[in-house]
Amino acid sequence: MRSVPTAHRPGGAPPARTSGARSASVDDDRLALQRRANADLVDQVLQDPRAGLAAMHDRFARDVNRLVWRLMGADADHDDLVQQVFFRILTSVHRLRDPERLEAWVRAVTVNTVRAELRRRSLRRLLWWQIPETNVHGDLAREVEARDLVYRSLEVLEKLPAQERIVFGLVHLEDLTLPEVAEACGFSLMTAKRRLAAARRRIEALVRTRPDLLERLRAGRGISS
Fold first, then answer.
1. How does pLDDT run across 26-36, given as a tens digit for each residue?
2. What is the rounded CA–CA span in Å between residue 198 and residue 113?
3. What pTM does this model have?
4. Mean pLDDT for the chain?
5. Rounded to an integer, what distance in angstroms lies between the CA atom of residue 122 and that of residue 166?
């Protein structure tokens, strides 16, 4: 008499899960833990702002510092901008409807803080009819060669409108996808595409007379050859 496969025997052991199923289960568990950690962190900020902000800083300080650096360059106000980001996080976290999306929300707060600063500087230049001298954050640009590149790069990027500069930086320096950029900036995917294309056109025109920057931007996928 032919034996019945174990998987179909009454009371038999269930079939072993495949490696793909196990991997999916591990990913689901990790995602669930991350969601719970996000919710706990938001609750902590709401219930104990001092301790919660310290925990939020421990969790996101590196990401916020990196994003501010990539959008602003080696800026003298870097530390102040980072502090502004965490102040905004503290004062607006109660508006976060979905704690599971905490990372994306922190990124959006950072982008909005940088955008507000760029607009403030643009207005100041219009009012005073001058461009203030660029100061480089000493801890972020110590080497002479690196500092020189920062100055020359900022000379180009500072000529972009704030929105285009941010979109360009998020795509080519932060390696975000266009849907992620649209979410961080609070506008549509089509708008993100349009502003990225405009930024690329402006930058290409600006660096045509700067072979050193043109080569670096092409190497970094900033513009086409």
1. 666 777 788 88
2. 22
3. 0.63
4. 76
5. 14
Among 87, 83, 85, 80, residue whose Cα is nearest residue 137: 80
Q: Go through the domains of the chain in sequence order and give each one's CATH number.
A: 27-137 (1.10.1740.10), 143-225 (1.10.10.10)
- What is the average per-residue pLDDT within 15-32? 65
Locus of tokens 């104990």: 48
Residue among 46, 117, 56, 48 nearest 81 (CA)? 117
Q: What is the pLDDT of residues 77-130, one digit of tens each?
A: 899 999 999 999 999 999 898 888 899 999 999 999 999 888 887 766 544 444
Q: What's the distance, Cα to Cα, between the start and end of the chain in Å? A: 73
Which string of DSSP letters, residue by residue, matches 87-156? HHHHHHGGG-S-GGGHHHHHHHHHHHHHHHHHHHHHHHHHHHTSPPPP-B-GGG--SHHHHHHHHHHHHH
What are the C-alpha distances in Å from 71 to residues 40, 112, 157, 171? 30, 11, 9, 10
- Residue 203 CA to residue 217 CA, distance in Å, equals 9
187, 49, 36, 184: which is closest to 105 by C-alpha? 184
What gap in Å lies between CA 130 and CA 49, rounded to an integer?
A: 41
